[in-house]
Each structure stands twice: as C-alpha cells, then as structure tokens.
Amino acid sequence: MSEPSEQKAVNGPTRTDDQETREWMDALSAVIDREGADYAHSLIEQLLEHARQNSVDLPFSAKTGYVNTIETEQEARSPGNLEIEQRLRAYMRWNAMAMVVKANRIHPPEGGDLGGHIGSFASLASMFGAGFNHFWHAESDNHGGDCLYIQGHVSPGIYARAYLEGRISEEQLLNFRQEVDGKGLSSYPHPKLMPDFWQFPTVSMGLGPIMAIYQARFLKYLHARGIANTENRKVWVFCGDGEMDEVESLGAIGLAARENLDNLIFVINCNLQRLDGPVRGNGKIIQELEGEFRGSGWNVIKLIWGKGWDALLAKDHDGALRKIMMECNDGDYQAFKANDGAYVRKNFFGRDPRTLKMVEHMSDDEIWNLQRGGHDSQKVYAAFHAAQNHQGQPTVLLVKTVKGFGMGKVGEGKNNVHQTKKLADEDIKAFRDRFNIPIPDSQIADLPFYKPADDTPEMKYLHERRKALGGYLPKRREKADEQFTVPALETFKAVLEATPEGREISTTQAYVRFLTQLLRDKEIGPRVVPILVDEARTFGMEGLFRQIGIYNPHGQQYTPVDKDQVMYYKEDTKGQILQEGINEAGGMSSWIAAATSYSHSNRIMIPFYIYYSMFGFQRIGDLAWAAGDLQARGFLLGGTSGRTTLNGEGLQHEDGHSHILAGTIPNCISYDPTFSHEVAVIMHEGLRRMVQNQENIFYYLTLLNENYAMPGLTPGTEEKILKGMYLCKAGGAGDLRVQLLGSGTILRESFFAQELLAADWGVTADVWSCPSFNELTRDGQDADRWNLLHPLETAKVPFVTAELGNSTGPVIASTDYMKSYAEQIRPFIPAGRTYKVLGTDGFGRSDFRRKLREHFEIDRHYIVVAALKALAEDGKLPAQKVADAIAKYGINADKINPLYA
C-alpha cells in the first residue's frame, strides 16, 4: 500500500504550513513597503523563472482579483467640477431619452417605429463626460486631434451633448432617424450621412475594434515616415462587452501589443448584457477579457466598484467580501441591479455572516446606492488618466456599469432594456426625479428637451472644457488642406505602349509597372502605401521590398535569409510597405486607415491593396461597405481574378462574383481590364479624381496572372475605356454580323471566336472591350431614371445604347464572371437586338484554363455557338447551322449545367 502515498508525494503537496506561508507573505509585504510595487513585481518574476528552471510547472494566469486595478490612494484626482459635470450629464441623459421616446411616438399610416436606444448611453454617460471634459482633443494648431470610435448605440447621447453645445438644433433632434428630407440625424455614426460630424462608423459591431487597431498603427506609420506628427494623438475605442464576441473585435489585439501601440485605448463597457440577455450568465466577462488582453500583452485596467465600496473593502481583512465578489457570476450581478437594496443585502452580502455584518449599519437604500465603477466620475477619471499616460503598451479599460442606469423599473438591468424605446409618463417622471431635471409635471406629456441658458455655470463650463481641448468633438474633416497634381498620363508610357514582338505580360505586371513609376514621383511617390497580405511574390512585387522597405516599428533585428539577393526581405522603421501577413481583414483595415488619412490626419495618402480577388469582397464585405461609409479613397486590386484564370487552385480560390459584390457599394468604381493600357488609363483617372480632385470614391480593379501580348493604347479611346466599353477590333465587311462583348481574360476568347466565325461560318464579328459592365449599368440606370422623371424633356441615351446603335446584328457577351454581371446591361441593348450572355455560374474547380473555360461554357466555341443561335433566332441562319457548330467543336450538349456541377 506504499505506492499511492509515494505517488502523492511526487505529484502533489503533502502538507500546508500556515506559518511558513505567513512568513513568505510578510517578507513580500516588507519588500513592497521598502522598495515599492515595481521592485516586488520584478522579484516575483525572478522567483517564478527560478521555479521553472527547477522543473516546477507553474501555469500562467493572466487574471487578477475581481476588484479595481487602481488602488484608492493611487487615483489621480479629477481637476474638474464634478457637481457641474453631474448636472450636465443629467441634462444629456434627459435629452437623449426624450429624443428616442419622441421619435417612437410617431405613428405613420403605413406603420413601423423608428427605433433607437436609451439603455446604452445611460450606462456610458459618466465615461463620455470624463472624455469630453478632460481627455479628448480636437484637431487644432498644436494637436492633430484624437480619434473616437464611439459605440453605435449611444448616438442619442452624443447628439444630446452636441445640442447643448449649440452644434445641433432642436429641429434635428426632433428628426432623429428621419434623414430623407435632410433635417435629421443618422441612427448610428455614419460619416457618409453626417460628413462633418461622425469620424468613424462603428456599426456593424466588431468593425470598430479592428479598424481602430489599424488606425492607431497607421498613425505610428505616418509619424515614423515623417509625413505627420502624430506622437500626442490617441485612438479611443468604445465597445460593448457583448460585441467582443465578434471575431473582428479580438482578432487583431496581438498586433496592437506586438507593435507597442500605446496610442490605443479600448474602453469596454461591461454592463454584462447583450441584446437578449446576459453576456456570460454563468461566468464573468470582465475576468475573461482580462485574460484575453493581458495574455496578448496589453495593459489592463479594471474599474468594477465605485467609491462606496472602498470603505467596505478596507475592512475586508480576511478576504470574505473579495471572495463573494469573485464567486458571484454575471447572471447574479444582473439580478442584483434589477431588484433593490434588500435583495442585494440578502443575496449578496448574506452569503457570508462576516459580509452581512459589514453592512448592518447601512439601510437598504444605502446598499442600493453602492455604485458600479463606471458610474463613479472620480474613478472613471482616474482610470482614463492612467490609460492616457501609460507607455509602451495598448491599454484596455474594463469598466463595469449597469445597462439602462437611471431608467428604473422599466429598464434598469432588465433583459429587455435594449429594446425599450417607449416610456409611459410615470416612467418619465421617475427619470426626471432621479436626475433632478427642472421640467414641471404639466410638461411631462410633451416631453420637452432641456437646455440651460447660455450664461449659466453649466453652459459656461461645457464650452470652456472643449475650448481647452481644442474644439468640439466629434468632428470630421471632409477634405485635406494640401493639394497634389498627378503626373500626366504620358508618364506611364511603358504601360500604355504595345509589348514588343514576342513579349507577353499580365495585367498584374502592368499594375506593378504603373506603381513603380508612380513611386518615382517626388511629390506623390512618398504618399503611396502598398499593402500586402503575404502575396508579394505571387504578384511579382518582391522587388519593392528592398526599394522602399517593409514598415516595422522595431526595424530588422535579424539578418534575412535572402540578404545576399537583390530583392531581399527588408524591414525598416521607415518602410513604406504595410505587410499584414495572411490576414485579409487586417489588410483591409490598414487600407481603410490609409484611404481616410485625408480626413483623420489632413494628409492625402494613396493606398494600393492587392490580394487574391476571391478573398476580397466575399471575405471582408462588411469592411468594404464601411469603407464606403467612411468615404475612403484608394485602390483595391483583386489579383488572380476570374473563375478560370487561377488554374490549379480550385473552388475556394476562383472568383466569379467580386464585381457583382463591388457593384453594391455606391462609391466603388470597378473595372475588369484586359490590357495594360486599360489598367494605366483607369488608374491614372483614379489618381486624378481621388488625389487631385479629392472625390470620395474608391477603385476596384481585377488583375490577371495570364500572360499575353498587349496591343497598346489607341489614342482617343481613353474616355470610352473609362465609361466602360469601346470597339477594339472591328470585323471586315459582311452581311451576317454580330457584336462580341467581353472583359478581362475572356475578351481574348472573343478575338478567337471572331476568327472562327469568319473562317467556319462566314459571319463577321466586331469585338468590344468592356472594362466595366458595372459602370455601363450605372450610366444606363441613371439615364433611365432621368427619362422617367423628365417625360417632357429630350430623352438621355445610355452609353451602351449609343455605342451599339451604329452597329448591326445580335450582341453576345462573355466574361469570367457570373452571367448576372453582363446581364445588367440588357435593358440598354438597342431595341430589337438579340442579347446572349455567357458566364461562370457555379463552383470553381482545379484544371487547366482551357478545360475550365470549356466547363463553364464561356470559351471561343461557346461564343461562336451563341452567336449562331442568336442569328438563327433572328431568322438570319437556319437552326441546323447551330447544331453543326455544336458537332464541329465537339460540345457535349447533354452535360450537366455548370451551375449544378
């Protein structure tokens, strides 16, 4: 029977010695008293390392006790007038509530409420008060301005503050969520809808955190490259605790720590509630997030308890109160705040006789008024102050609040508080009384907004604080002060000209040549921001590594394995390339930061983000939509594009729909060029519009990895290239005639089809390059709309109609994208003309390009068959000719539709 006891001696402690434990703790206390906390921390780290070296397996815990990180005696004291700040918050709470309730008292005949949120701002008001009054700088002569990512659901509170400041009128408050007539306020932060107000969109949830991380990183990049002084600027990000379950919310926190983004501060509002219920009913979201962030290398500050708890914790010599604090889960804490003081006495303090005795001198009301940390203005200030001054790491503030604070029985701490948008008069009276709003009972039914007179202490204080911080926030810059003139199109002559005899290149190579030439421009070159996601060698861009370097704030602390090569991997503190690794969401977030630099940093930057086209809009579509909202300016480049060009990679890589997705974003201008000169003309026009004219648009170009000879630019076709189509290869004379339309690589199949039609069937074909079916569609729809609304005016003619109007015969379109891409222009094909569309509907697969184009029925043979079928339908040819062509080209007429294959 000795083996079990021996095993126990090896694997676990055989005894506990309270005396020895106490001696160790007393020794540590003496070190803290004599040498300070930092030295004690260092000593503990050395002890732990010594233990590891002696095979003592010590699992790491990134979590601390369920108490405030900052001790009471360490708190920085607020320099503000807390009484006035409290009154201002009360007025903002009232106006925010009134705005939402008023909006939802409107009952249009068609039904439907406008919605809005009261509970979120109610939980965050103290934090926004501290930030606006003491920390957040507006852009001024001596400060670039802080960046605020404001939690979307709190927008009513931000409007309420702007109303007191005189920046928003009562009429606008009355038109909350009623924007069509131009007098209203957007539901959430939307720069597109309020371009001089909101800095950043934060809805949909999860996008704010990841965009903010790369925004903070881009500010460091601007500073490191000497383009802008950003050293005193901060990026403040407000998130909900439930929002942190979004993958994007936590996905990039490692980057923030790795690059020491001490200009980044996350404030996570831990009110413990999601829209439907508790975030972690059986757990503790604050503890969970503390482990996530500290484990990733962040500075973590927890603010859980208000000042009323300080005295109780000071008396908690045996740790009984701290033990209960840790043992109660978030579901319990939500229940405490949804009930009353008697409930808290019984179900919280009553868990241990010692803690129950602690509060025996307190009334139920006093217990109820023990606040969470996020509602204590002094403690919020102290936490913000510590975050603002921390160096070397990003900081996260985990702040515990009550959702619906101040809403009373109708919503405070209740599961339905997020959906609570309507209050009865009695609930409004209770709200008024709780926050001492000077509104008489006689006006309660009207629910008036409240604004003190301009000469009151509150209003003077409000304006004085913002004046001290450089001006009012949020505020968005719409244009940069600086101006650039883009190089002439002729600068890119090497891309515009035909390739020499026997030389073939891809449109991707054409892009790289264009970019290389642009980088040589002394004015604009430094503003170019190439963004990669670990695919530089795929796109032939590795030559830029040594030429302009890869940005890394720590430089290159190793010798690269390819150092002896011309194009070695060079990282540099002043590097120009942003290399994001295998991380499309990160690449897009970096692109957004660069593409909006004109607004947030008064510096025009030109980002070029290239990636596998399949991993663009499909993968990060939500961020692309946010980029449209942000009025981004830059180039997105979908490499290895089309369903049939990336042979060998298969289903998940082959893109046949990115242009359809791009077309859903109103300010995205998209093209599928075939030739290098088209790439040059389109990108030059993009530079002119976005850089020189500062238009709020961005460009998407699909590029190919397929090499072929380039014909060069035909002078005079530039405008038609930009509009979306031009005749690039006319056929000879002939009575039987068709028009072949194509884009990207499949345009070349139309050239081959042109030859087959003439040689095998005596049919003449004209071939049209259509770099953008999306732009053609928008032009046509715009003309249709104008004609609809101006029936007595001369009708506008869509560009497609005008171009094809002088031609004859049926029209056949074939692209490497789904049929719906080219189908868009069907309404604008001249009347009476047959229109056939071929496309790549269905899942991609691996094979050679020839086989894939045959499989998807878009190759030269299918184009010929479609042309003959259209002529037969027009009565120009017997149907037998179509059958003959099918037989001649060996087409299996009974194979499965590729859509279902």
The strands making up the biggest β-sheet line up spatially as 9-6-10-11-13-12
Q: Tell how many strands the DSSP assignment holds.
A: 18
**Computed Rg:** 33 Å
User: Low-confidence parts, pLDDT < 50 over ≥5 residues?
Assistant: 1-14
- Beta-strand share of residues: 5-15%
- End-to-end Cα distance, whole Å, is 68 Å
Average pLDDT taken over every residue = 93
Q: Specify the helix fraction band.
A: 40-55%
Please identify the structural class as seen in this structure. alpha/beta
Sum up the overall morphology in one term: globular
* Count of DSSP H/I helices: 36
Can you offer a commentary on this structure?
The protein is of the alpha/beta class. Helices cover 41% and strands 9% of the residues. The strands form four sheets. It has a six-stranded parallel sheet with strand order 9-6-10-11-13-12, sandwiched between helices. A five-stranded parallel sheet has the order 1-2-3-5-4, with helices on both faces. Helix 28 links the parallel strand 12 and strand 13. The radius of gyration is 33 Å and the shape is globular. The termini are far apart. The model is unreliable at 1-14 (pLDDT under 50).
Short description, anyone?
By secondary structure, this protein is α/β, with parallel strands linked by helices.
